[in-house]
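> forwarded from #structure-qc
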């Protein structure tokens, strides 16, 4: 009932805003287009596609628009993007997502706007993703990759839904990396977190309404005390508390995230030595960081793998070269083993993953909100306080000025001899600057070992595949209905 009322109110208010004259950007000599949230609501397109269409249509460096009541600026100039993400970070540190204090998980995520709180959590979590930590954690991801291949082999029903397969792998692998491997379970793919994360992260009308309200009508968001992750709060925090309690006196080194959480709790208050800001490492705060692993990694990593496999089915020559590289690594070991160090030898696979993220960025737009009175960007555009800047990642990475023949899947763009030709701030799958994605390295390891083991045993039936349409998502690019045929290889 609440969401019927909310939808009615939102529709009425948004219609009023659209019909009301808005000359905010015109008065500032910036090209102005219609409200992008209205376009999102009435179309079947994702927001990254909407932003790309606008950017492709207008040959200017910045485009003024709005998202409901919020003045918004689309940035295409790389110097402006650098200023927002890096150079003027203190003025653009916030992602601009409104969160209610009663939304315990969301209010403690790395997405939070509270700069001091974000900074100290970021400081404490950064060591989780060092090469040394990932090397120690690799046995978990490799075990999950083995079980993933067995799942593909055994489950004919899931083979008809390949996105569900790769999503099961990425979610289960993150679950095992957070909570450790359940030694009683026959397979790590039998993870209790897969269904929960699928429900939490799949774009829905309810999720889009809450996001819309938080970003466009903040007063309504506060009035209704809406929560973005409230449906999963009790269950997830309960799991974290149970697991941490059971592991308090465990002396075995597991190298998972729970082990790191227990170390943080032993340290007591987290303190920023620069500002003196202190934060209690509560179960709720740590549970939010664990949830962040899933929220930021499960869907995005699955999307990268899914589109990479889609393109490999469409490009048999690229697939054949990749098979050769993978086979050489396994055969050099003379076993069915692959090590963390072996991943560095899979250079062509790395190029394929990079090109997949270029053509299909799992996060198709980034946003930052101006927190100071005004900032003059390098292009000369003035950004006032509370204006949201959108970096249209999909538009930038599919712009022919940045990438010739952008619709062509070409891993050679990321060959060692060609990487230096890529312009700074035109490749942003993990963002850039101080708020770049912490889990980028983890994600790449997870994807590489999963694809290496999958394509060691399986190949793809050649077929021309292209997404007809992406799902209606506010930030990501998703096309879960694409089917590619995985079949056992003949050695």
């Amino acid at each position: 009932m609440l969401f019927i009322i909310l939808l009615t109110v939102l529709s009425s208010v948004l219609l009023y805003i659209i019909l009301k004259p808005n000359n905010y950007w015109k008065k500032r000599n910036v090209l102005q287009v219609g409200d992008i949230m209205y376009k999102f609501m009435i179309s079947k397109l994702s927001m990254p596609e909407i932003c790309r269409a606008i950017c492709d249509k207008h040959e200017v460096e910045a485009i003024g628009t709005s998202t409901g009541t919020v003045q918004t600026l689309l940035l295409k100039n790389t110097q402006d993007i650098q200023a927002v993400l890096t150079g003027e970070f203190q003025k653009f540190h916030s992602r601009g997502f409104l969160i209610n204090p009663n939304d315990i998980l969301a209010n403690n995520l790395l997405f939070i706007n509270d700069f001091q709180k974000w900074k100290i959590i970021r400081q404490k979590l950064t060591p989780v993703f060092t090469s040394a930590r990932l090397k120690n954690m690799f046995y978990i991801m490799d075990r999950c990759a083995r079980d993933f291949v067995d799942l593909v082999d055994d489950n004919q029903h899931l083979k008809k839904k390949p996105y569900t397969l790769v999503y099961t792998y990425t979610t289960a692998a993150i679950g095992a990396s957070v909570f450790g491997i359940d030694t009683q379970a026959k397979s790590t793919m039998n993870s209790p977190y897969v269904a929960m994360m699928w429900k939490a992260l799949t774009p829905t009308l309810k999720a889009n309404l809450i996001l819309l309200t938080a970003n466009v009508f903040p007063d309504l968001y506060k009035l209704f005390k809406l929560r973005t992750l409230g449906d999963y709060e009790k269950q997830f925090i309960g799991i974290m508390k149970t697991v941490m309690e059971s592991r308090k006196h465990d002396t075995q080194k597991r190298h998972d995230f729970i082990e790191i959480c227990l170390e943080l709790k032993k340290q007591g208050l987290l303190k920023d030595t620069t500002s003196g800001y202190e934060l209690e490492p509560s179960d709720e705060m740590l549970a939010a960081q664990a949830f962040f692993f899933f929220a930021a990694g499960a869907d995005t990593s699955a999307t990268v793998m899914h589109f990479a496999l889609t393109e490999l089915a469409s490009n048999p020559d690229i697939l054949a070269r990749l098979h050769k590289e993978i086979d050489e690594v396994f055969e050099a070991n003379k076993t069915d083993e692959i090590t963390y160090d072996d991943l560095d030898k899979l250079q062509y696979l790395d190029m394929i993953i990079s090109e997949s993220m270029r053509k299909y960025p799992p996060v198709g737009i980034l946003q930052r909100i101006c927190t100071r009175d005004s900032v003059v960007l390098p292009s000369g555009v003035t950004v006032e306080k509370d204006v949201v800047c959108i970096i249209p990642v999909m538009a930038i990475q599919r712009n022919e000025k940045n990438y010739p023949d952008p619709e062509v899947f070409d891993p050679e763009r990321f060959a060692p001899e060609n990487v230096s030709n890529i312009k700074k701030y035109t490749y942003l799958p993990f963002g850039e600057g101080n708020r770049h994605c912490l889990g980028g390295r983890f994600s790449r390891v997870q994807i590489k070992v999963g694809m290496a083991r999958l394509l060691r045993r399986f190949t793809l039936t050649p077929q021309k595949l292209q997404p007809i349409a992406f799902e209606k998502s506010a930030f990501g690019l998703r096309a879960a209905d694409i089917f590619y045929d995985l079949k056992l290889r003949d050695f």
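QC bot note: The chain has one domain: 2-488. The chain has a mean pLDDT of 86.
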